[in-house]
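Lecture 7, part 2: worked example. A protein chain together with DTB.
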Amino acid sequence: MAQARTDWTRGEVEQLYRLPLMELVFRAAAVHREFHATGEVQVCTLLSIKTGRCPEDCAYCPQSAHYDTGVEVTGVLERARIVDAARAAQDAGSTRFCMGAAWRSVRDGQEFDHVLEMVREVADMGLEVCCTLGMLTDDQARRLKEAGLYAYNHNLDTSERFYGEIISTRSYQDRLDTLARVRQHDISVCCGGILGMGETEEDRIDLLHTLATQPEHPESVPINALIAVEGTPLADRSKVPFWEMARAIATARILMPRAMVRLSAGRVDLSMAEQAICFLAGANSIFAGEKLLTTENNDWDEDRAMFEILGLRPRDAFKDARPEHVPA
Ligand code: SAM
Ligand code: DTB
Ligand code: SF4
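Predicted complex, written out as C-alpha cells:
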C-alpha cells in the first residue's frame, strides 16, 4: 500500500484540484479503494451541549454573541440530556458521538469537570467520543484524553489568507497550536473546513494544502458547505456549487488517503445522487441525526433508505484503534 505523503507541494495540490472533474473523481475513487473498505461509511452524531453566546465573531456561526440569529441559548446541558442523546444516537446506528460547546476556549472549573464526566460516560457506552470545545491548554487536552476522549474537532475552516476576513477574535496560529496539543496527547484529530464563505478557489487549494502538509494528517477531515444563517454576516452568501464540494472531497481523499473524509454541513441540501458522487469521490463519513449543532440535518429514515439503495453500510466503532476499556 502506498505511503501517505505530508510533503505535497502547493503546485501538486493545485494540479489535482483543477483536473477535469471526472478524472479527479476517478483517481480519488481508486485511492479510496486502496485504503478503505468501499461502501463503508462512518456515522457520527452531534450534540450541542452548550449553545450560543459565544464571544468569538466567526462570521459563519449562528452561535456567536456578535450576531442576532435567534438561536436558542443554553447553559451546559445536564447529564441526563447528554446521555439520552448519546444512547439514542447509538440505537440509531451511530458510532461516534461529538459534543460541541460554543466556547472560545475551555475554562477549568465545574463546567469542564462536567464535560470530562460526560466524556467518561459516553466512552463507557462504547461510542467513539469526540468533543469540539474551542481552544485547549496542554493540561486540558491531557485531562480529556485521560477521561477517554477519542477525537477532537477543531477546524482550520479556510486558508490562512482568508481567515482574517471571517474571524477577528483569534488567529490561524491559535488554531494550529490547539491542534498540536491535541496531537501531542494522542487524541485523534478531526480538522477540516467550510466552503462557500466567499473564498476563492486559491483559498480552497491553500486549505487542502495546509491540511495535507501537517506533520501528520488529521484522522478525519470534515468538508462543510456553509449553512447561511439569517443574522450572520454571511447570511446572503449564495450556496457553494455542488461540483466544488465534490472537487474538494476528491482532492482531500487523494492527498490524505487514510483520513475519514466527512461530508458534513450542507448535506441536507444535496440530492441522493449528489451524495452518491461524494461517496464515489471518497467521502466515507457523515453526520446523521435530526440536527447538526443548531441547524437541521437529514432525516434518519431518509439516510437509512439511502444506505439501502446505494449499498452502503455503517462502519464499526474503533476500527483504527480500540481502547482497552471497550470489548471487541
Ligand atoms: N466553538 C468551537 C470551535 O469553534 O471550534 C466548537 C463549535 S464550532 C460551531 C464547530 C465548527 O462548526 C466550526 O469550526 C465550523 O467549521 C462549523 N460551522 C459552524 N457554523 C457553520 C455553518 N453555518 N455552516 C457550516 N459550518 C459551520
Ligand atoms: C464540523 O466540521 N461540522 C460540524 C462539526 N464539525 C462540529 C458542525 C457543523 C455546524 C453547522 C451549523 C450548526 O448546526 O450550528
Ligand atoms: Fe464560537 Fe465556535 Fe461558533 Fe466560532 S464557530 S462563534 S468559536 S461556537
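The longest strand covers residues 40-50. The chain has a mean pLDDT of 95. Keep this in mind for problem set question 3.
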